[in-house]
Amino acid sequence: MPKEVIEGELLTSETKLDDYDVSKQIGKGKFSVVFRAKRKSDGETVALKKIQIYDMMDSKSRKKTLREVQLLKSVAHHNHLIRYLDSFLENNDLYIIFEWAECGDLRTFLRKQKQPLDESTIWSFFSQMADAVRHIHSHRVMHRDIKPANIFMASPHTLKLGDLGLGRLFSDETQEAFSKVGTPLYMSPEVLQGAGYDFQSDVWSLGCLLYEFAALRSPFGGNNENLYAIFKKIHECKYEDLPATYSKELRDLAYSMIQTNPKDRPDIETVAKLADDMCKRQRGNPHATLLVDLIIDKLKLLDYEVEFCREAGVKPLDKLKLVQKYPNTSSQFRYVSLLCHWLLAVSQKSVFLAVEVDTDAKKAASNIISSTLSMGYEGTVSSSNLQHGYGEAVVNVLDFLTARALEANDFSLEDPTYGQEEDVGEEGEEMLGEEEEGLSRESASGTWSMDGAFDDDSGIESDGEDLEGAVLATTRGGRTGATWYMEPSIPGDLWKEETKEIASELSQLTRGYAAILNGEKREQGGMGSLSHVRSLKRQVVWLKSTFDSVHEKLVRVHKDIQDDIAKVEVREKHISESFSEYADQMKQQSETLAGRTSEYDAVAETVQSLSNELQELVDNIHAINDSIEDKQAGAQDSKPLLKIRGALKKLKEEVRKNQQRSHPLYQPNSIFSLLVSIRSE
Questions:
Q1: Coiled-coil ranges per the record (predicted)?
Q2: Which of 59, 275, 606, 675 could form a disulfide with 127 if both were Cys (CB 3.0 to 4.6 A apart)?
């Protein structure tokens, strides 16, 4: 694309790079670098994107970049779109100026999450993005690359959709696009297949985003899976179910948007409306939200952070948990149940023990409702509503119980009355002096008069009673604006004369008094003047008032300690009564255990005796076995002798036979041999 054409399309701004203070680099792409910068004209922080449109890009890439600028210009401003501010060419580079997102991108935010997001946050975030996509679709623009990395956080609660670099502007006649662009994990099946796609492809990506809000991971992502495995999962639309802790509406919406067939997905108008409705429902009733602030103020009057939170082992009340749903509703109701039972105990002046509160939600809710109704509650509340742990019904019950608890502790709840400001006047001034028992008081503008009996030697009369009668002798002669005019009780000429006479001493006294206030020691010089005496009187009065104030505080502290001791004694008595039965059972079991222990010892002794006898028998058996083995060994040693005897016997027999054969009678033809043979036959 010729340079002249590019310049003709872009150069409508006279902005130059010199108009910005460019600071650190915050991102980098193939052809571009993004910097944080500050606009010199008004000091606004911006994101400055520098694109090397001539040095590194080919014609196709330049065309794509120009399309991004055209898209940014064509879309009207929206609260949840990163705002395009300006663009210009300088030194063969294209610069695009965007709105700065202070809190980074959504991908980084989600990766840092250790716990699941609560549902109200998910609906708030998703509603913002759905509305932003609805807005660009209304301008016939498809984003085509919706993912957490392209969503930015202007504040912890505000998201803005950015990076239309892959966006596509559809004319009124265009129905489908065919180019395969986007990020694989968020690509719709029709884009992966290279088929035609339309605005419903953005709905698919939004569904993947909603799923990731709830699961903190992409529906089709995995550990080190290759592109083929990811494409296969997307084509088959296989993903794990979302946690059941989230509402059915959230899960159903996410599943309906991640449908293989684009026609089965809801359109962006339906998605945006449902997200907005759910967001409003999560925020709850505005009246209830305001009422929660009053409830917390009442709880603080009851010192609930000490009396309730410590005993129950819970944190101070989070007002959002009373007006919106959290993933773990059982813990929400458990907190409300403990708080209601504590308020009931305060109202009835009984002892609250967290361990005695029923853990069964249904029973605890029924107990709260029956007790509240018996105290005169006229509102409507059901067990199921109360078990939610949040909502208008819960807030109304808590408001009623906190009011009853305050009344039981002698708090009077009245609406404030407003009237015109009245001038106190001289009578009021005298009454003020009487109430403060004559102690001197400071005024923004006025004169001190300390009347008393003085002794030239001591400066103050020994009884010091007149110090108690020192009053503020001021009168209000009129009022102009915010200034009070007060007439001095000492004539002006005498005041001036006295001031001149002790001017140097006044300066020294001022420094000395400041030293006394700082806890330092001041030397008492020979100042017997009237000013010195007055200063001492003020100090005595101030010390006395301070002593009275401290004494009053000590009395209150002593009373509080006594009250705490009384509470501890009541609680100790209650615990003793509650567990006396268990103590008796424990005592009986201890006695039984002692008896069983004695029996065990006797049996163990018998077993030991029998074991000794058994050991003796075993030893005897071993001795007998040894004897048998010895005898067997002896028997085995006589075998050679027997063999010799057998051999001798055989030898003798052979000798005898030989002798017979050699005798004449035993010759074969002899008569004896014939007789022998005949006999044998």
A1: 600-661
A2: 275
Q: In whole angstroms, what is the distance from residue 568 CA to residue 507 CA? A: 56
Closest by alpha carbon to 187, among 174, 205, 200? 205
| Distance in angstroms (rounded) separating the CA atoms of residues 266 and 509 | 85
Tokens of 581: 């039965």
CB of 476 closer than 8 Å to CB of 443: no
Q: At what angle do helices 639-662 and 530-637 cross, to 10 degrees?
A: 10
Annotated binding residues, written as ranges, equal: 49
User: CA of 649: how far to CAs of 462, 619, 645, 662, in Å?
Assistant: 153, 46, 6, 21
- Rg (C-alpha) for the chain, rounded Å, is 51
CA distances from 626 to 282, 612, 613, 623, 633 (A): 91, 21, 20, 5, 11
- Classify burial at 19, counting beta carbons within 10 Å of its beta carbon; exposed 0-12, middle 13-18, buried 19 or more: middle
Please check whether residue 38 is in contact with residue 45, taking contact to mean a CB–CB distance below 8 angstroms: yes
pLDDT for the residue numbered 257: 95
Residue 505 has pLDDT above 90, yes or no: no
**Two structure tokens written together for 441:** 């008081």
Q: Residue 259 and residue 197: Cα distance in Å, rounded?
A: 14
Which whole-number Å values give the CA distances from 192 to 164, 179, 182, 257, 399, in the listed order?
Answer: 20, 10, 10, 17, 57
> What are the angstrom distances between the C-alpha of 153 and each of 73, 613, 614, 670?
22, 87, 85, 143
Q: Cα 14 to chain center, whole Å?
A: 50
Distance CA 324, CA 333 (A): 12
pLDDT tens digits, residue range 188-225?
Answer: 888 888 777 788 999 999 999 999 999 999 998 876 77
Of 47, 52, 61, which Cα lies nearest the Cα of 31? 52
Kindly report, residue by residue over 158-175, the tens digit of the pLDDT. Answer: 999 987 654 444 333 333
pLDDT of residue 638: 60
Tokens read off for 146: 């919706």
Binding-site sequence positions for ATP: 49
Q: pLDDT for 365-397, tens place per residue?
A: 888 999 999 998 888 777 877 888 888 888 889
Smallest Cα–Cα separation from 151: which of 161, 164, 163?
161
pTM of the model: 0.47
Write out the H or E segment, with its range, that includes residue 477. Answer: strand 475-480
With a pLDDT cut of 90, the percent of the chain lying above it is: 20
Residues forming a β-bridge with 632: none
Tokens standing for residue 53: 């449109």
Chain length of the chain: 681
Catalytic residue numbers, as ranges: 145
